Amino acid sequence: MKNFQFNGPFAEYIKNHIHLKQAVGYKYETEAKHLLRFSSFTAEKYPEALSLSKEIVFEWCSKKSYEAQANQCARSSILRQLAMYMVNIGIDAYVLPKGYYPAAKQYVPYIYTENELQRFFQQTDQCCHVGECPYRHLIMPIFFRMIYACGLRSSEARLLKIEDVDMDAGILSIYHSKKDNSRLVAISDDLSDRCRTYSEKVHSFSKKSDWFFPGLNEKPMTVVNIYRNFRRFLWKAGISHGGRGKGPRVKDFRHTYACHCLKKWVIEGKDIAAYLPVLKTYMGHYSFEETAYYLRLTADIFPDISIKLEGCYPDIIPKLEGGYDETN
């Protein structure tokens, strides 16, 4: 955990709560930042508070004029977790009822067609060299192909070190991903060759501990950099974007990978019940339910295989509500 200086009457509880979350495998970094702001809020407005009262909870959780519904729900959930922790250790705290604030409409992943993927990757191949980011034209074709071809989270690809990419064995080593999980991801021969060519051009004098996809000032590529390039490639490929919160999004390459795998297995007559655990492990899912979500999504996106999926696996196909999109 970063050296946050928590203030206010609940500082010690906040710090211990975060330590506990991280000890059981959660990164809890974004949540810690929210709790840092909450501690400053209570230090300023309720410095003498002896309990986490209903008044404090509702004032903190009230929706800001500039705030999206999803962010309010996230802040409320984080404070609810803190309150539950305090109650469990015998401290008086008001626990906000679960689901008290209405959740924003869940985003249903955008599944790219084969043609859209081809057009998108063609645009990454045409990325030009710019002085401000000298390796951009080399990074983008590999980065986006890797996310799709390996079903990676964007952060998993962005934070790869050179030593994590074994091009001879065709293996990516993913460390400390979601819920602190680590895993090995096999990559195709074609992607290995692309990575090797890329590495020869970019990493001739790099150390093994350097970032595989370097940004500026010896840091990895930023999320903003990735997103801006993504939107530019999307536009040039003629793929419509629905605006803020509508998608397509970068993480939809990962969702597309999962759906395309399932579609391929169904067409080939594979035993999906046997293959789902493989997909779960490959994608780094924490629970089987997260992986089974893609069965419903695949059935809805590809109606031609819907009947076969429903007929063979009616008990493991969840209702499609977008609920697992943010956790996958």
UniProtKB/TrEMBL annotation:
Transmembrane annotation, as ranges: none
> Would the keyword Cytoplasm be found if you checked this record's keyword annotation?
no
Q: Name one GO biological process term.
A: DNA integration
Gene3D superfamilies attached to this UniProt entry: Intergrase catalytic core
Q: Can you name one GO molecular function term for this protein?
A: DNA binding
Q: Where is the Tyr recombinase domain?
A: 107-307
Q: Which UniProt keywords apply?
A: DNA recombination, DNA-binding
Q: Pfam families this protein is in?
A: Phage_integrase
PROSITE patterns (UniProt xref):
TYR_RECOMBINASE
Give the matching InterPro entries: DNA_brk_join_enz (IPR011010), Integrase-like_cat_sf (IPR013762), Integrase_catalytic (IPR002104), Tyrosine_recombinase_XerCD (IPR050090)
Q: Do the record's keywords include NADP?
A: no
**Family classification:** Belongs to the 'phage' integrase family.
Protein known as: Putative phage-specific integrase
- State the organism named in the record: Candidatus Magnetoglobus multicellularis str. Araruama
